[in-house]
């Protein structure tokens, strides 16, 4: 069942494309080389000239041709062939009726049937044929109408001739437009062409208009006459689907328009009686159709099931394409999208129709926001179905200011960096603004994080924390920025600083190391593009500040490993102690690289960032990190000095932290942290006093010994 439904949807989509193709070709490729009409020579040329200035009539003929083509599917052709097979081998002679007439002629039997075999005997005598003959004639009329429904006028006429209904074939021919080619041949041409069509078509239409509503005629006979003269009331009873209704109304509109064109073209050729009758005949104008109101009339007069069919999404879209009402077209498509009535075929067709209209400069006829929403929905559908190779093409069809947002969203759905790099290169091919897309991708990776100034749970911790999935996404975005950004290195640097602040707040030092590795180790103001150098001074200082802090953390971690190894190998400490002591200056230098950072660690020296929208939050974050990280680093260094009893270094650090010329870094310490530092300093002072006392005792003992 699902397969059958999918096939049906594909057929409907195909038919809708046929409509668009016919409508576009009809409106754009009208014949322009028509000869001037010679009076009294060609109704066909009169109508064709009128078509040049009547786009509604051209559209109606395109719609009629489309409805005839789509009706003639495989199933319809099979049914027609089977029905025609029953009729073609024999001619319809009304055999049963004829036999009854012969047998009842001398028997004085009451006769309810016709008494002569004229083709219009039933109509004139108000009698009927025998049941079998009646059924055969009904079958023939139904097949003829079915052929007319799909535009097969020639086949219908041939069928009528082959079955003996020459009068019906003549009626079908009477609808053809009059044309005498001999008027348009050169004088040197010796060939005499036959005259085509019906020169008295105006009067003939009047007769057919009355005849098609004669209820004594058969249903399909009236429908055939109604089709030929454009009387919709005669056609409606045989319409079974919405497509039949639309075809009937469109065909009648065309016939009515042609009739009025010819009436006004030939009004000077009519005698006074005919002119008065034709021009004042209200009956012909009672139900004058207009292309703009056909759809409303269908909904007003049709049964409920036809109305439901008319309101289906594809039929509504086709309606607005026919009316060239593109604003309503876009509104209806969005309505289907919002009410979840869309499917793959509908969304695909709708999107490409919108693309055609947008690229053919019809954008003044619809709301561009609707176009963007429809195309964005389709791109999302492609991403969902993992048709990734198509995404960049459709993104490139969006207005420039919308491309980058959707490209960033698409990149965010890709699982690995190789895919992102591949589609970024594809984006370059389609001339998508990759720089802005990458910056928006980076912005999408930002997460809300609380920078808690009072958080001292890890005040002296240098333990590593694992990076989560979101952290890796941010680092991937940074890698893409540093790889694919054409000139905006400063933007990549600012994004790196932002995520480094987050990593430092969470003590995720590995994330900072990775972020730093994406830039040259010797990056300076001359590395930044020339037009951004003046704006990059504070950003460079911030970036290098993270590098200095990571260097200090790594030095402390390395020293801690050495110290733990020393504790585990108490029996052979000589070499370990030498490594421990030898590495201590490196630790001290790295930590002082943070404490004595030029003009202050994580402090701006210019006012450049004050004009940026995120300046306030950035300043708060840097202030919190200063209050958090510098005390943590100092406490770790104090602990090291305490463990190896480097009391002089303890005092030197205390003096440095309280130096007015060094921003008085002790002011960043919380009360608890200061107490911890003072406690460690107290231990160092006690050790110094103990050593001083021991040295004094040693000196006294030496003096006594010398005296003795």
Q: Overview of this structure, please?
A:
The structure is a single chain. By secondary structure, this protein is mainly α. It has a domain at 519-567 and 578-606 and 617-695: Delta-Endotoxin, domain 1. Helix content is 67%, strand content 0%. The chain has 33 helices and no strands. The model is unreliable at 456-460 (pLDDT under 50).
Topology overview:
Layout: H1 2-28, H2 43-52, H3 55-71, H4 74-87, H5 95-104, H6 121-125, H7 131-149, H8 153-162, H9 166-174, H10 201-211, H11 219-229, H12 232-235, H13 242-265, H14 272-279, H15 282-285, H16 294-301, H17 304-310, H18 313-323, H19 326-338, H20 344-359, H21 368-384, H22 388-395, H23 400-413, H24 417-429, H25 434-445, H26 469-484, H27 489-505, H28 509-517, H29 537-568, H30 574-595, H31 615-644, H32 647-657, H33 671-707
Helix pairs in contact: 1-3, 1-18, 1-20, 2-13, 3-13, 4-7, 7-8, 7-11, 8-9, 10-11, 11-13, 18-19, 19-20, 19-21, 20-21, 21-22, 21-23, 23-25, 25-26, 26-27, 27-28, 27-29, 27-31, 28-29, 29-30, 29-31, 30-31, 31-32, 31-33, 32-33
Question: TL;DR?
Answer:
Part of the nuclear pore complex (NPC). The chain is mainly α and 708 residues long.
Count up the helices: 33
Radius of gyration: 47 Å
Assign the structural class, choosing from mainly alpha, mainly beta, alpha/beta, alpha+beta, or little secondary structure. mainly alpha
**Strand proportion:** under 5%
**Any low-confidence stretches, pLDDT <50, length ≥5?**
456-460
What's the average pLDDT? 83
Please give a handful of descriptors for the protein shown.
33 helices, Delta-Endotoxin, domain 1, rod-shaped, mainly alpha, 708 residues
């Amino acid at each position: 069942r699902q397969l059958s439904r999918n096939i049906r949807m594909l057929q409907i989509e195909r038919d809708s494309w046929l409509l668009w193709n016919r409508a576009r070709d009809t409106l754009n490729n009208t014949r322009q080389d028509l000869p001037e009409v010679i009076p009294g020579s060609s109704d066909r040329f009169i109508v064709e000239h009128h078509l040049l200035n009547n786009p509604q009539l051209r559209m109606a003929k395109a719609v009629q041709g489309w409805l005839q083509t789509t009706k003639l599917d495989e199933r319809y052709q099979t049914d027609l062939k089977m029905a025609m097979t029953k009729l073609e081998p024999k001619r319809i002679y009304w055999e049963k009726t004829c036999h009854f007439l012969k047998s009842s002629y001398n028997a004085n039997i009451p006769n309810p049937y016709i008494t002569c075999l004229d083709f219009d005997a039933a109509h004139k005598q108000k009698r009927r044929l025998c049941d079998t003959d009646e059924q055969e004639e009904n079958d023939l009329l139904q097949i003829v109408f079915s052929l007319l429904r799909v535009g097969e006028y020639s086949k219908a006429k041939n069928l009528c001739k082959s079955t003996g209904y020459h009068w019906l074939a003549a009626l079908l021919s009477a609808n053809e437009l009059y044309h005498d080619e001999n008027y348009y041949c050169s004088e040197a041409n010796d060939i005499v062409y036959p005259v085509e069509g019906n020169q008295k078509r105006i009067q003939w239409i009047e007769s057919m208009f009355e005849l098609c509503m004669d209820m004594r005629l058969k249903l399909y006979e009236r429908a055939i006459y109604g089709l030929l003269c454009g009387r919709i009331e005669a056609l409606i009873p045989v319409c079974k689907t919405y497509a039949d209704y639309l075809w009937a109304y469109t065909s009648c509109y065309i016939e009515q328009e042609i009739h009025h064109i010819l009436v006004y073209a030939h009004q000077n050729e009519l005698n006074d009686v005919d002119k008065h009758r034709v021009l004042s005949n209200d009956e012909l104008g009672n139900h004058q159709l207009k292309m703009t109101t056909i759809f409303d009339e269908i909904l007003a007069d049709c049964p409920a099931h036809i109305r439901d069919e008319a309101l289906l999404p594809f039929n509504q879209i086709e309606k607005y394409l026919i009316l060239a009402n593109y604003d309503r077209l876009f509104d209806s498509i969005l309505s289907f999208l919002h009410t979840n009535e869309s499917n793959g075929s509908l969304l695909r067709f709708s999107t490409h129709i919108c693309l055609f209209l947008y690229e053919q400069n019809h954008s003044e006829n619809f709301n561009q926001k609707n176009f963007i929403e429809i195309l964005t929905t389709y791109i999302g559908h492609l991403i969902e179905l993992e048709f990734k190779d198509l995404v960049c093409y459709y993104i490139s069809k969006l207005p420039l200011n919308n491309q980058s947002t959707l490209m960033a969203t698409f990149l965010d759905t890709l699982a690995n960096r190789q895919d992102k790099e591949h589609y970024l290169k594809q984006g370059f091919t389609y001339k998508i603004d990759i720089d802005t897309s990458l910056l928006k991708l980076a912005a999408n990776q930002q997460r809300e994080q609380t920078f808690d100034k009072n958080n001292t749970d890890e005040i002296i911790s240098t333990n590593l924390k694992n990076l989560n999935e979101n952290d890796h996404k941010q680092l991937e975005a940074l890698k893409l920025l540093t790889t694919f950004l054409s000139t905006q290195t400063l933007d990549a640097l600012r994004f790196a600083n932002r995520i480094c602040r987050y990593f430092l707040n969470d003590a995720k030092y590995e994330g900072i190391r990775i972020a730093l590795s994406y830039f040259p180790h010797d990056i300076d103001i001359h590395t930044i593009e020339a037009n951004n150098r003046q704006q990059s001074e504070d950003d460079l200082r911030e970036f290098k500040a993270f590098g200095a802090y990571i260097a200090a953390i790594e030095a402390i971690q390395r020293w801690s490993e050495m110290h733990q190894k020393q504790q585990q190998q108490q029996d052979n400490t000589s070499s370990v102690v030498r490594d421990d002591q030898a590495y201590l200056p490196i630790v001290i230098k790295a930590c002082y690289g943070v404490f004595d950072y030029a003009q202050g660690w994580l402090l701006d020296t210019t006012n450049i960032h004050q004009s940026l929208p995120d300046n306030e939050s950035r300043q708060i974050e840097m202030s919190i990190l200063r209050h958090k990280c510098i005390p943590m680093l100092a406490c770790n260094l104090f602990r090291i000095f305490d463990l190896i009893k480097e009391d002089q270094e303890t005092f030197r650090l205390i003096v440095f932290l309280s130096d007015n010329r060094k921003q008085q870094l002790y002011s960043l310490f919380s009360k608890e942290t200061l107490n911890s530092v003072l406690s460690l300093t107290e231990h160092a002072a006690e050790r110094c006093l103990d050593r001083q006392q021991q040295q004094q005792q040693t000196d006294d003992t030496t003096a006594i010994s010398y005296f003795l």
